[in-house]
């Protein structure tokens, strides 16, 4: 891709956390995406080498920081390698920002992991960050560099619009997801409902009540991530018990930890729709799981950032600031 604004030609690098997504982005941008070698020494230590000239180039590094911590270390080493190779600008493209749930000190003697993760990315030498559906919007302020924060809502809502579902209700699985659900409802022309739940222990949820009318209606549960699927499975059962017709669910980040696959496969769920911000191994997939690609969204954002154009048209969701 030709340089148009003095940042040098675009160079796309990738760690190992989600190589299929990085290759898809490279294909859309018509650039080579295999410009880095990442491997482990015998003891597990990570080695990184950029295989093409990076001097004076506009470097984009695609790497979700999903567990284990090696994914974060790979990102940091790639940033450092690009910095030491005299890159003109380094953008960390983080489809899933790990440690985003640790965004505040809500208990005694706990770390604010999201701020620490942001600090080390900046310290490593990143000049800007391109992220997608942070767990909390204020995480953008944890970085002392520019952040372009995208939303997967256009990708997810387009899929459901194409289904032509009628009599639709978008359901927030908890109060914290109400803003996201409202944005979905605006795009889909749907009503909104909220599930009020109490979480007695970490990774456990107890559904109390459904606020809103779901009787004889099609429901879409919208969330930013699905981890152990306890909340999602409970929400599906609660909606069906209250007379919902068909229940769909969607989430941007499919962590699918622990018993998530079994819980979702056993739930009375029509379809679970997620994106490929996180690579999903075959053993975590199930029959009613649909994976949508965000490669086009990220590629367009990379293109706009490289040419110093506005990316606001990609992440503004009508109704979110109403």
Approximately how much helix is present in the residues?
25-40%
Q: Can you tell me the residue ranges where pLDDT is under 50 for at least 5 consecutive residues?
A: 317-322
Q: Assembly state here?
A: single chain
User: What order do the strands of the largest sheet run in, or round the barrel if closed?
Assistant: 10-9-8-11-12-13-14
Radius of gyration: 20 Å
Briefly, what CATH class of the largest domain? Alpha Beta
**Total domains:** 2
Largest sheet: 7 strands, mixed
Key features of this structure:
2 domains; globular; 30% helix; 25% strand; 14 strands; Rossmann fold; 5-stranded parallel beta sheet
Structural topology:
Layout: E1 10-14, H1 19-29, E2 36-40, E3 46-50, E4 58-62, H2 70-84, E5 89-94, H3 113-124, E6 128-132, E7 147-150, H4 153-163, E8 168-172, H5 178-188, E9 191-198, E10 206-211, E11 218-226, H6 230-241, E12 247-254, H7 260-266, E13 271-275, E14 289-292, H8 295-306, H9 312-315
